[in-house]
Structure formats: C-alpha cells, structure tokens
Description:
The complex is a heterodimer. Helix content of chain A is 56%, strand content 15%. By secondary structure, chain A is an alpha+beta fold. In chain A, strand 1 (91-97) and strand 2 form a beta hairpin. By secondary structure, chain B is α/β, with parallel strands linked by helices. Chain B has helices spanning 11-23, 34-43, 60-70, 85-93, 106-122, and strands at 3-7, 27-31, 48-52, 76-80, 98-101. Chain B has a 5-stranded parallel sheet, sandwiched between helices. The radius of gyration of chain B is 13 Å and the shape is globular.
Amino acid sequence: MKSEANQTGKQRPASLLVRILSSSVLLIAVTGVFLGYTGVQLIQDFAKERFDERMQFLARHLALNAELGLLVEQRNALERLADNILAEKGVVRVVIEGGAEPITAEAIDGKKTGLQQVSRFVTTPAMDVENVVFEPGSLTEGLLQENVIGKVTIFYTDQELRALIRSLGLRFAMVAVGICLLGTVFMLFISRSILAPLRKLVVATQRVSGGELNLEVEGGHVRETDDLARSFNTMLHSIRESRAALRESYEELAKQKNMAEVGKFSMVLTHEFKNPLSIVKGSLDILKKPDIPSETRALMITYMQEEVLRIDRLIEEFLLFSKPKKPDMKPCPGDALLGRLAEKFRVRIGSSGPRIEFIPAEEPVYILLDETLFTRALENVIKNGVEVSEESGRVLIRSTVTDGNWKIEISDEGPGIPQEVKELVFEPFYSTKAKGTGLGIPTAANALAAHGGKLEIAENHDGGKGTTFIISLPMTREPKDNGEAHGVDTGRR
Amino acid sequence: MASILVVDDEERMRHILSIMLELRGHQVEQAGDGEAALEIIRKKRFDLLILDVKMPKMDGITLHKHVKEIDPSYPVIFITAFGSIDSAVQSMREGAFDYITKPFDEDRILSSVDAATQDAGRN
Lengths: 493, 123
C-alpha cells in the first residue's frame, strides 16, 4: 500500500538495471561508432593513396610502352596497348597523343562524371640538345634532357573503391550493432546476478516492516551483495534480540507495575479495614468486662454493628471499582435526584460539617440514567467535597443545561487540588486525605463514563481556594424503545 | 494513675481507648487531630501521649516533632494500621516509647501504657 502511494505521489527514479543497461549500451555504441568511423577513414585514405599510386604506375608503364609505338607509328600496337590499360580496374578512358591523331580507348560504361586523370609524357633520350625548341606552354617545357614525343592520359574513377569502403563501413556498423547487442545481453546477465539478491533484499525488508523477523536472505554469487545480505541478516538478528530484550523488560515492568498496584491495593485495604476492625475488637474487649455500665455496653454493640456495616460498604466499594456494573438506563428527573441527594447529606452531616447548597437548573432535566449507579457516583464526589471542607464551609451543587448537556458542578471551599496532582485524583488508591480508599473519584469517573458522560476538575480562576468537579452528561440519547424518552415528558411534575 | 492524651481522628477509637484506660484508673483526655492536640499539649503536661499515625490536618509523626520541641523526652506511644508501620519505626528511632499495630490487644496497650508511665515516673 505504501509503495503504491509512493508511486502515485512521486515519480520513482530509474532502476539500477535500466541505468546499467542504458549506460553500457551507450558506451559500447559510442566506442563502436568512433572506432569504426576512424578505421574506415584510415582504410579509405590508405586505399585511395594506393589506388592513385597504381594509376601513376599504369601511366608510367603506358608511357614507356607507347614510346616504341609512337616512334614507329604503329597505331594498332598503340590501340592494343590502350585497350590493355583500359582492362585495368577503375580505368575508364585511355588517350595516347603524339601521332597524327590521338588514340583513344574508352570503356563503354565509363562514367563521365567524377573522373580523375593522370598524364605522362612519352619521351626519348635527347639526341640533339641544340635543336630543342622552347615554346612557352608547349609539351616540351622543362624537359631539357629528353625529347617529348607524345603524351598518355589515363582517365579513371574510384567508384569501385568507394563502393568497397561503403561496404566496409556497413560491415563495421553491423559488427558494432552486434557488439552492442552482445554487450547488452552480457550486461543484462551481470545486472541480474547483482540485482536478483537486491530484489530479494527489498522483498525481505518489506516482510520485516510487516513484522516478520524470522527470515534469512541469500546474497547470490557476487561478493558485494553477499556482504550486504550478511549485514542484513546480522541486523535482523540484532533486531530480534533487542525486541526480545524489549519484550522481556516490558513484561518485567508490567509485572513490577502490577506488583506495585497490588502493593498499593494491599496497603489501602489493610489500612481501611484495620480501623473498623480495631474498633470492633476494642468494643468486644470492653464488652467482655463484667462490671461496665449498661449504656456503655449498648454503645459498644452499636459501634460493632456500625463498623461491620462500614466494612461491608468498603468491600462493596472495592468490588464496584474492580468489577463495574453495566448501567441500567431509565428515564429520570435529574434535579429531583440531586435535591434528594443534597438533603441526604444535610441530614447525615447535621451541624458538624459544611452546609450543602443546591441550585437546580432553570429548565427541567429529564435524562436516561442508572439511578443507583449515578447516585453512588455523585455521592462519592459530594462526600469528597464534604471531607475536605471546614465545618464552616460550604459545598455547592449547581445544575445547568448547556448545549444539550446536563452539567453538574460540585464546588467545595477546601484546600484545593494542586495542578500537578489533578490527574492523580483519577488514579485508584490516590488520596489527598489522611484516610480513604482513594477509590471514590475513580469509581465515580468510571460510572459517569459508562453513562456516556465525564468527570473533570475545573480550572481555578480565582486564585485557587477550593475545588470544583464538573460532571457533564449528554441529554440527547436514543430512546431504548419507542416512546420511552417521550413518556418522561408527560410525567413532569 | 497517669494523665494520658489520646489523639485519633476516629471518634469511636478514641472512646474505646479512653474506656479501657479509665477502667485501669488513668485520667484520659481526647483530641481529634494533630492541631487540636498540640493546643492542648501546650496548655497542659500529660504523662503520656497516645497518637494515631494517620490523621487529617496534622499527622501523628508531625505532631510528635512539635511535641519534642516542648520536651524531647515526652513519652509517646503510636498506634498504627499496618500501612504506616514504616513511619512508626522511624518515630521509634526519633524517640517514641512504643508503637502498637491495629487491631490491638487490650493487654498489649495497657502493659505498654504501664511501662511508659512507670518510665516517666522514674524520670
């Protein structure tokens, strides 16, 4: 999936195979063309020189042989001679001048264009130097020791040579293409032997990133890829080891944390149970005495009964926290419930604690909730406020409806909760008070969360005295069955 | 007979201890927290203080420190639940006479009180 995303998001760079192949083919092609061109050029120059030399030689040979013919004016012999020369490769016309009429031998298919010519004077050794007449532009100019009796001219063409060079060039080109193809195949083979292990490595890394660690890759037959594969396998081995070590330490940590939780739990449990137990035991010790007044005896029995109930409530509190109940939601008039709860606390506290004030919401609140569970949660929060308050203090319960949420603020005038321990208040067994299980607020938070609501501590705006817990519950809920929620409205008081 | 101040935030615990000690012939006064106790101690000298370790406002250990400022050899017995034994042991090192774990045995506390008050009498 990721690689697909990469492909679509950004153009991927060319693969190693393409790079190696294209660069090697380019290199071979350039080298082939350069060497071929230079070679053909050299051969062409060399062959042209030899060809021209041969024509010079033929002209010399013709001039020598034509000497006799011209001297004795044997036209037939000269014609044969010209024909013989014409038979030579490349010669297209042979002209022998010197007689009464120049003798011309010409090839029938001789091309007239691109012709080259080579001329030679036919001479005889000078017999009478004094009779040599110098005429500017005449055939004899510059020749002082010989008598010029004629001139031979050979017209020739290097067309065949050119054809030969062309065919040579073509062959070079074909060889170059052949070498290119061969080189490509060869490089393909080499690239594959390098790339196959690399591809395997890529697949392996993908598997590793998918979480599979128990694998080994092979490095192929190239040393570098073999080294790479070995390093990869070593790396995998270390990852496996460190992961195992990590898991071990994590398990150890979890165990320690668990032990710490158990330790904390045992401490709280012991402390909270030992107080009522010691009252029960002390009361029993007193009851055992024969000469105690009957009112003391009655009081001790009351103590025992109430402390046993206290132990029972503690057990229930622990159970409720460790095994939270699933709320059984029923429609309920929220503020009526809060009013009853406030009254219950007023009666319980009497004159020995803070006063409890309740301000209901301006509009009636009807909401789906598990009354027992919700009451228990609120009791825990209010109890917390009462316990941290001075006798002259006040605990205010204010109900409001905002944005479809029922909001209950429970404010006390106690010492407040420092910012750094605000989160700890929601941790089990944490308590700012000398006594208490540290389960009241966490249990309340759990119960409210099960209702789809939440419990928070408000920020202190006015310099910090007291604490305000805010409970919020969403009021818009899907009715459990038809008309259940609407049925509530008709039941308004 | 000795005058004893029992300091514990559990009213019933205080009451039970008082009954036990009074039946033994001691004079007992009570305080519900460390601050209240300190006020009483500043006004009146007792033969023995029985302090609970965990209390709101001012715990037993802190109270003991204040008491030692008045008299470093003031006899003190700590009563504690299992969870705060460490603090009690620390207090013993700092000069408390004894510590008793909850739930305590009547004989255990009475004999400790006797020993502490006799000790105090000798001093």
